[in-house]
Amino acid sequence: MPEEDVEEEVRSLLEFVRLDNEMDKLPSELSGGMRKRVSVARALVGNPKIVLFDEPTVALDPPTSGTICDLIIELRDLENVASIVVTHEMDVVKYLTSEYASIGERGKIKFKDDGERLCLTNTNIFMLRNGRAIFSGTSKELIDSDNPYIQEFIRGTELLPERTDKGQE
């Protein structure tokens, strides 16, 4: 890619993650949340159809975590980019499965809540425990699950690991 096209692509991706004003900063001058957004921009180079987010909001304050989730939602709803999000944070799951983005008047992005239903049709949840699939379905099906582990996870209660040392106390 010619150098002048690279700069235009970088500027476009930084604009998408709302960091176009920070283009001339060194990585050491960026906050943790800004670095996360730069990593999203880097993942979008080449216009992928699917992006993997591995714990994208870990160690972020709530507003910055919300910004990262908004970017994932924008990718899904406005750019037609599928995402696989690995997370242990139920708040992230709830947000990603209940909010959607649309373009409002004057081209401004608007986020809307799908309500308490948590059932966006273009979002599926896959849950693993000890390396085995224990759930696959919509967020509504997750919430309605009668699996005790899933219910504890949803409530955010402390989960005890399965004992592998039977007979030892």
Describe the fold and architecture:
This protein has 169 residues and is an alpha+beta fold. It has a domain at 1-47. Helices cover 38% and strands 18% of the residues. The protein contains 6 helices and 6 strands. It has helices at 3-16, 32-43, 62-78, 90-96, 139-144, 148-155, and strands spanning 50-54, 82-86, 99-103, 109-113, 125-129, 132-137. The strands form 3 sheets. It has a two-stranded parallel sheet with strand order 1-2. A two-stranded antiparallel sheet has the order 3-4. Helix 1 (3-16) packs across helix 2 (32-43).
- Largest beta-sheet details: 2 strands, parallel
Overall radius of gyration: 19 Å
* Class of secondary structure makeup: alpha+beta
Shape: globular
Strand order in the largest sheet = 1-2
Q: What does this entry show, briefly?
A:
Helices cover 38% and strands 18% of the residues. The chain is an alpha+beta fold and 169 residues long.
Layout of secondary structure:
Blueprint (H helix, E strand, L loop, with lengths): L2 H14 L15 H12 L6 E5 L7 H17 L3 E5 L3 H7 L2 E5 L5 E5 L11 E5 L2 E6 L1 H6 L3 H8 L14
Parallel strand pairs: 1-2
Antiparallel strand pairs: 3-4, 5-6
Helix pairs in contact: 1-2, 2-3
